[in-house]
Write a structure and sequence with these properties.
Layout: H1 15-20, E1 24-31, H2 36-48, E2 51-57, H3 66-72, E3 81-84, H4 87-96, E4 100-104, E5 111-112, E6 124-129, H5 137-142, E7 145-148, H6 160-176
Helix pairs in contact: 2-3, 2-6
């Protein structure tokens, strides 16, 4: 029998300990996300994998907000975040700072997520798009890579918070694997 661990047994970090933790060299850019629950969920996942930062753009709501907090469960206090009115402005700054940019989208000439090779010496920013329209075409055009999550069912997309969780986990594994 496997006993479920109590919260005390999980040895979770305090906010201060988390902020002092070495972060995964990954920034998540949210391009016009309309659902506050999706935003909160991305914050929570970013906390789980010690992601460097979230950048909220356009219509994406900003903390503090009751609806974001419902799903973030305090992660807006641990994960660093920033806001830009225009996604392209954020991407230009990230590129100037040496980040490789990858849009998560279904497009021509994509790389399937399981085949994407991360250069762990280069920080990476991943862009997730609006629930209906996806990543903007200008953000896709400005990106160095376009990564697609393979799907074999009848639906043509995943919820943005699910996509973010899948991609962050895969990239987290790449940045934290031992050679």
């Amino acid at each position: 029998m496997n006993r479920i661990l109590s919260n005390e047994e999980l040895n979770r970090k305090s906010v201060e300990e988390f902020k002092a933790t070495e972060k995964t060299r990954l920034i998540v850019v949210l391009d016009n996300i309309r659902s506050l629950n999706n935003i909160g969920s991305v914050f929570r996942t970013a906390d789980a994998f010690a992601i460097e930062k979230i950048i909220l753009c356009g219509i994406s709501a900003k903390p503090p907000h009751r609806e974001i907090n419902k799903t973030a469960l305090g992660a807006t206090e641990t994960v660093e975040w920033d806001y830009y009115e225009e996604t392209l402005d954020a991407l230009k700054i990230l590129k100037e700072e040496g980040y490789r940019l990858a849009s998560i989208e279904q497009a021509e000439n994509t790389t399937s997520l399981e085949k994407y090779k991360v250069d762990t010496k280069v920080p990476l920013a991943i862009v997730f798009g609006n629930e209906v329209k996806g990543v903007s075409q200008e953000a896709v055009n400005f990106s160095d890579d376009v990564i697609e999550i393979p799907q074999i069912g009848t639906k043509h997309s995943l919820n943005i918070s699910v996509s973010a969780g899948i991609v962050m986990w895969e990239l987290f594994k790449s940045y934290n694997s031992k050679p």
